[in-house]
Design a protein that fits this description.
It is a single chain. The chain has about 140 residues and is mainly β. It folds into 2 domains: about 10-70 and about 130-140, Chitinase A, domain 3 (Roll), CATH 3.10.50; about 75-120, Thrombin, subunit H (Beta Barrel), CATH 2.40.10.330. It is built from 1 helix and 9 strands; from the N terminus they run βββαββββββ. Strands 1, 2, 3, 4 and 9 form a 5-stranded antiparallel β-sheet that branches. Strands 5-8-7-6 form a 4-stranded antiparallel β-sheet, with no helix packed on it. The termini are close together.
């Protein structure tokens, strides 16, 4: 079958780790992920780590924050009035809410602070600002 190349649809097992070695996600306990190399479905660095592998082959790639989920941005953290939240939502730290950006794109917000009349929400990706290491194994080229 040969090595994986741009345009191939592949099945991959991965383990993602932070710099301290802690695992933030892994497909090892579930089915491998399937994506098309070059299709933009996964981080570009993960796609490139698969290129050239044959089924059963492994690779490790380290992605600096800027090539992963971006640097943390302070302008993505905002204090809002509790009154703008839906009535059925009881705000708590860690609760995730979905909103729309001014351009109409879906935005995932995480509540980071709750006060009497306001809540602080963070629209940064939870892994923003983190350098990430991925161990990948090419399971199959489909």
């Amino acid at each position: 079958m040969g090595a994986a190349k741009d345009g191939d649809t592949v099945k991959v097992h991965y383990t993602g780790r932070l710099d301290d070695g802690s695992v933030f996600d892994s497909s090892r306990e579930r089915d491998p992920i399937e994506f098309t190399i070059g299709g933009g479905e996964v981080l570009p660095g993960v796609e490139q780590a698969v290129v050239g592998l044959e089924p059963g082959g492994t690779n490790t790639v380290k992605l600096p924050a800027g090539d992963a989920y971006g640097e943390r941005r302070d302008d993505m953290v905002q204090e809002i009035e509790r009154a703008v939240l839906p009535q059925e939502v009881e705000p708590q730290v860690g609760l995730q809410l979905q909103a729309q950006s001014p351009g109409g794109q879906p935005l995932l917000l995480t509540i980071t602070e709750v006060a009497d009349s306001t809540v602080t929400v963070d629209a940064n990706h939870p892994l923003a600002g983190e350098d990430l290491t991925f161990d990948v194994e090419l399971v199959a080229i489909v």
